[in-house]
Amino acid sequence: MQTLEIALLSTLLLFPLVDLVLEKYKFRNKCAEYIKTSVMLWVVTGFLFFCFLIGVLKIDPPQYLPSASWKGYLAIFMFAVFIGYMKYVLSSIHKDASVRLQVLKAFKVGGESFVEILPTSHKEFLFFTLLVSVSAGVCEELIFRWYLYSFIEQHTGGLVAVIGSSIIFGLWHTYLGWKHVTKTAVVGLLLCGIYLYFESIVVAILAHIFMDVYSGSVAFIARKAQGAELTNA
After folding, report:
1. Could you give the CA distance from residue 57 to residue 6 in angstroms, rounded to a whole number?
2. Domain CAAX prenyl protease 2/Lysostaphin resistance protein A-like, which positions (predicted)?
3. What is the phi/psi pair of residue 164, to 5°?
4. What residues contact residue 40 under an 8 Å CB cut-off, 6+ apart?
């Protein structure tokens, strides 16, 4: 293992600690915080690609599209169903006050750090959707499902690679609290399963982006509708 790869692995393992320190110096402007988070992700991903391009990493390049065409069609169908489900949920939140209250309570249970990262204004929603969700989807899938899974799989085995990469993925979200570390690790297992089944990093990236967009949209619509209801009361 070369020095640069050791530096890369050290960066991935120490990133949660750095993130915890930076949590104490957050920007008051949420959009600025979104930019900071995205820049950090792209810097790490850029380092990853630099190491790969100069031949330091002994892994295969990611497979972009499914090798079987039917898996591609299945992925398209899966995303279409998810979009339909998301529209239904958002419509229910907007129209039904009881559903809206349940959503808002669920977010509060998630903890203050989790609530703070979710968008509340139109501008924040755009930044969260177009910048944070896309950056997290692209960068984290390349880091965890492509590189880290491949690295661990080479030295141990497939099952250990799935579990190990997912646990580290969960630890990257320590700043949200240990409850979210566990939840995110489970999501990591799901995304790893998607990556391996569809044999496509693009499908995994899109699934990750859709999940993040869903969370941001639910929070934004619930808060917006609740605010309008209180204003009209």
Report:
1. 10
2. 125-213
3. -65, -45
4. 19
CA 232/CA 229 separation, integer angstroms: 5
Q: What is the DSSP letter of 142?
A: I
pLDDT tens per residue, range 148-206: 999 999 999 999 999 999 999 999 998 888 888 999 999 999 999 999 999 999 999 99
31, 20, 15, 28: which is closest to 118 by C-alpha?
31
The pair of structure tokens assigned to 67 is 């090798």
Distance (Å, rounded) from C-alpha 84 to C-alpha 167? 31
Q: CA–CA separation, 85 vs 144, rounded Å?
A: 27
Helical segments of the chain, H only: 3-23, 30-53, 69-95, 97-109, 112-117, 122-127, 134-140, 149-155, 158-171, 178-198, 201-232
CA distance 91 to 87: 6
| Domain definitions of the chain by residue range | 3-232
Amino acid at 129: T
Q: DSSP string covering 145-187, please? A: IIIIHHHHHHHS-HHHHHHHHHHHHHHTTGGG-HHHHHHHHHH
Q: How far apart are CA 229 and CA 63, in angstroms?
A: 48
Task: Give the mean model confidence (pLDDT) for residues 136-152.
Answer: 97
The single residue listed with the structure tokens 């599209």 is 65
**Any idea which residue has 């949920």 for tokens?**
89
CA 210, CA 134: separation in Å to the nearest integer? Answer: 9
